[in-house]
Amino acid sequence: MKFSIRVQYGVQAMLELALKYGSGPVQIADIAKSQKIPVRYLEQLLLILKRRGLIASTRGKEGGYSLAKHPSDVAVLAIIEAFEGQIELAGKKMKKIPVLFDAFSKIQGNLEKELAKLTLEDLALKKRQKDRAYIYNI
User: Fold this and answer.
1) What is the pTM of this model?
2) Given a cut of 80, is residue 137 above it in pLDDT?
3) I want to staple 18 with a disulfide (CB 3.0 to 4.6 A). Which of 115, 124, 129, 130 is the partner?
4) Domain architecture of the chain: domains with CATH
């Protein structure tokens, strides 16, 4: 299973907003540059996230985008579902083979549970820790 580029870029953009949470709106050009996402594509992604209520926009000279909720209240699952809909490993056709359907349903449940627990705050904390870590070459 592989998430689409929309999901990957969407999570990156949301992580950038989580890292800047509380410091005011972030301009789209800054998000694009920091996360290496094409501006035109990012505009489309941010519109989807805004419609889903995950981010808010502010107009004007000092405008930009910000998280609509605290980073601890935004699960990665919500971001994925904003772009792809509900995760479906065990499709309707798989019901014809109950042993496979049961196995994949269990995996899907575990995946959804883990993605629902993982928040933007968790990712931001890990990113900050990694950025502070020193690398020593001997």
Assistant:
1) 0.87
2) no
3) 124
4) 5-132 (1.10.10.10)
In degrees rounded to 5, what are phi and psi of residue 66? -150, 160
* Token code pair at residue 22: 């509380």
CA dist., res. 30 & res. 25, Å (int) = 10
| Closest by CA position to 28, among listed 5, 3, 57 | 57
| Amino acid type, 60 | G
Tokens of 64: 């930009």
CA distance 116 to 120: 11
For residue range 68-112, what is the model confidence (pLDDT) as tens digits?
A: 999 999 999 999 999 999 988 877 788 888 899 899 999 999 999
